[in-house]
Amino acid sequence: MKATANSNQKKYISESIEEEFKEFIIDKNHPCIMANTVFSMNDYELHVHDGFSTKTTAANLLEQLKMYVDNYDFSDNKFKTFIAVFPDAEIVSEVEFENLLWRQLQFIHEKDTEAWDPRVSKNPEDSNFSFSIGGRAFYVVGMHPKSSRMARRAPYPTLVFNLHWQFEKLREMGAYQKVRDKIRERDTALQGNINPVLEDFGQSSEARQYSGRSVGKAWKCPFHSQK
């Protein structure tokens, strides 16, 4: 009975958090039109984790993300995103969140036995860098309540994993620039400007964009590839 009660409680917490994210994305008209679409269509996986920036969470995330990739329909134009939420993590600053984000990604990488996605670079200083998990490139979006960017000010510390394939698919469909410009327009309307670290893939390392913090030119990514 106790195990069942705990399971029901976790399910309730997960559903409650999911509703909070729907409010954050849909009800508050989030600038990212892709986020609005996936939430409106329920094309997302949301997983709640007890610990943030731990090796145990890294193992769980790696397993979940591999399953997510295995079940992804790459023949379809419908996009689906993966969201990891850490409701128990208390963040006091953007710098702290950034450090925890990269520590969590480092732990995932160290447990990942798959080769790095050959379509992207494993060097975070390279303009062709993208994070690889289970042999697939991901663009990671960090969000948390202390973010200076309103679009990143999620109810809880969160990591969003978007397959890099999705951006390439948008380019193939001729929709990438239109979607990008619309998001930047909406972000400007929300905050008065776009995040200065945002650039198109290939112009500078996307590692600078993951945490959402406006990092300076001297910033060095703490991630180190072991592959």
Number of beta-strand segments: 5
Quick one: biggest sheet?
A: 5 strands, mixed
Please write the string of helix (H) and strand (E) elements: HHEHEHEEEHH
How far apart the termini lie comes to 45 Å
Strand content: 5-15%
Strand line-up in the sheet with most strands: 1-2-5-4-3
Number of structural domains: 1
Form type: globular
Could you please describe the fold and organization of this structure?
By secondary structure, the chain is of the alpha+beta class. It has one domain. Helices cover 41% and strands 12% of the residues. A hairpin with a 2-residue loop joins strand 3 and strand 4. Helix 3 crosses helix 4. The N and C termini lie far apart (45 Å).
Short description:
The protein is α+β, with helices and mostly antiparallel strands.
